[in-house]
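Usage

Read records sequentially. Each one opens with the input sequence:
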Amino acid sequence: MKAIEQNDIADTIEEIALTLNALSSQSEKEWDLSVNHMTKYLKARVNYERGLDLEKVALLAVARMQFLHDETMLSLSGKFTEGDITALMGCYQGDILSPNKAVNVSVDILNSVFPKRDENCAIDTIRLIEKLHGLNTVQRFTLVDVIEQIWYQGGVEPKSRVSPKNFLASIDIELK
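and closes with the structure output:
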């Protein structure tokens, strides 16, 4: 990316968005909901006089996020069943999620599962929601990121995907 002036950050994010092909309408909506957070973060930190251009600030943000994920992964181990992960995957169907969506994952689970009116499913859903409410914000972000990774790591065809259980084991998260 070329060096840009501070007031051009929003335009640069928009240019990046235009290069993202094949986003579903839901993923595009989530991207749009994230732009304000991206712009706010970058505007507060880009400082050309100190050598902090857009690229360095963005890469540092990625490194910080990965550090938080690494520190948080183990705290998710043993909390969720395979059914919980399947419910979360079914709720999002391969979408990317905005920060707001990640924090409010319980609401999506309710909206996704409860219309089915299955009593056993409802009991499992209540247990899952209780688990989700027991997570702190960083744990929720990490969980949502893991769910996205499960969707994206195996390609488009479900048959070519590694099972969620095996994928989670590969990143040291054990199921309950």
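Summary fields computed downstream for this record:
- The chain is about 70% helix and 0% strand.
- Residues 82-170 form one domain.
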